[in-house]
Amino acid sequence: MNILAIETSCDETSIALVKAKGNEFPTFTIHTNLVSSQIKIHRPFGGVVPNLAKREHIKNLPVLLKKLAIKISKSKIKNQKSKLQPKNKIENETNTIRALMKKIDVIAVTVGPGLEPALWTGINFAKELAKEYKKPLLGANHLEGHLYSFLLPGKKAISYKLKAKSFPAIGLIVSGGHTMLLVLSSLTTWKKIGETRDDAIGEAYDKVARMLGLQYPGGPEVERVAKIGDPASIKFPRPMLDQKNYDFSFSGLKTSVLYHLRDMTNHEITTPFIIPETQRNNIAASFQAAAIETLVQKTIRAVKEFNAHMVLIGGGVAANKSLANSLKKACKKESVMFIPPARNVITDNAAMIAAGAYINILQKKKRRIVAQSNLTL
Ligand code: KG4
Ligand code: ZN
Predict the structure, then answer these.
(1) Contact at 8 Å (CB) between 99 and 76?
(2) How far is Cα 119 from Cα 187, in angstroms, rounded to an integer?
(3) Residue pair 10/118 in contact by the 8 Å Cβ criterion
């Protein structure tokens, strides 16, 4: 089945063409996964501005669709020696989009969670395409996209081969808006066992970055300077580690960083705090150590309680090498597999939306095609 997927929930506009097949252990081939990032546009504001995101998505969506269609037509010409010759530019574009849509079995679009104005741009675009080319349209959950991103092949086109004995599995979602632990008894059956009670982990990274005078998006920047800092220099709290549930709380950790900076500089709350680089790097490294220890320990506790055979991770913070290495090490110690997504599908992209939508087809799950900014798992 060929899925055309569209993602516009936050600040990345993305369109992908993914081939999906199989039932119990589905496999995916990414034909194309185009992502247009708006980071540079939002950076001066220190975060995503919803109406700017909407404006950019509206501008980017037709451009990406055209690009995708041209890529497909080029591979078609190469593979099948098509004699299709364009008469003029517009006719050529219309023809290539029509040729692309002929190949599509279903269109999938993110309906939530995310920024409402941004979500609507993708939904409206997808609805128009579905109507014009008479294709079925599926609403997808962005979080399921992150959860199932481990199924997508990386650059070398190899993906993890699922087996019955891969389950039960523990899924950890760590993104800008969510932090969740799930138990999967199969690929299609899962239960949420914990989530953050306040800030998401990515949000905490972004806020700490702002305090430290680092650019948006803060996660990769905190990781960069943490590498050269001392993670043992400040003992920040490990939130909720002593509690026997699987919930998280990162707001207290973020506030500890704030108080530390305030005491250090003798300044009232000012963001960013102006401090020497060595101290900035030490704070970043110590914050990261506290955050990662909390995530890893709760995940491993879940592995033991639910006798899991595999740990999955998804969401933008999964790009953090320190987190991935800590989880890998902890999983190895428990003799469970650790399956991170391929690097090209970790942050927001449409290929993962195709994967989530295909799993929904297997589950016979259907969603309303309206923006659901607070949709959860
Ligand atoms: O999944 P994602 O792309 O978008 C959401 O669904 O939220 O995640 C974005 C989040 C941001 O908070 C960003 O700072 C964080 O992921 N992030 C990272 C890293 N790369 C992205 N956090 C820590 N380390 C990273 N390397
Ligand atoms: Zn995301």
Answers:
(1) yes
(2) 26
(3) yes
The strand ranges marked E within the chain are 2-7, 12-21, 27-37, 106-112, 137-141, 169-174, 179-184, 190-195, 310-314, 337-339
Q: With beta carbons less than 8 A apart as the criterion, state whether 18 and 119 touch.
A: no
Q: Measured in angstroms, how far is the CA atom of residue 315 from the centroid of ligand 1?
A: 7
Q: Delineate the domains of the chain, giving CATH numbers in brackets.
A: 2-150+346-363 (3.30.420.40), 161-340 (3.30.420.40)
From 115, 205, 223, give the residue whose CB has the most ligand 1 atoms within 8 Å, as the site to mutate: 205
Length of the chain: 377
Could you give the 3-state DSSP secondary structure of residue 79?
helix
The reply to whether ligand 1 has any atom less than 6 angstroms from the CB of 113 is: no
Measure the CA–CA gap between 287 and 5, rounded to whole angstroms.
Answer: 36
- The structure tokens listed for 308 are 């899991």
Atom of ligand 1 nearest to the CA of 314: 1
Which of 347, 349, 377 for a ligand 1 pocket mutation test, highest count of atoms within 8 Å of Cβ? 347
Q: pLDDT at residue 163 above 90?
A: no
**Closest ligand 1 atom number to CA of residue 176:** 7
pTM value surpassing 0.90: yes
User: Is the CB of residue 219 less than 8 Å from the CB of residue 204?
Assistant: no
> Rounded to an integer, what distance in angstroms lies between the CA atom of residue 104 and that of residue 107?
7
Helix, coil or strand: residue 154: coil
Q: What are the tokens at 29?
A: 């081939």
Distance (angstroms) between ligand 1 centre and the Cα of 218 equals: 8
Ligand 1 within 6 A of CB of 11: no
Residues contacting residue 207 through CB under 8 Å, at least 6 positions apart: 199, 218, 254
Of 287, 351, 348, 282, which Cα lies nearest the Cα of 323? 287
Q: What is the C-alpha to C-alpha distance for residues 116 and 281, in angstroms, rounded to an integer? A: 36
Contact 88, 95 (CB under 8 A): no
Backbone phi, then psi, for 349, in 5-degree steps? -160, 160
Looking up tokens 């016979």 gives: 364
d(CA 117, CA 93): 28
pLDDT tens readout for residues 169-207: 999 999 999 999 999 999 999 999 999 999 999 999 999
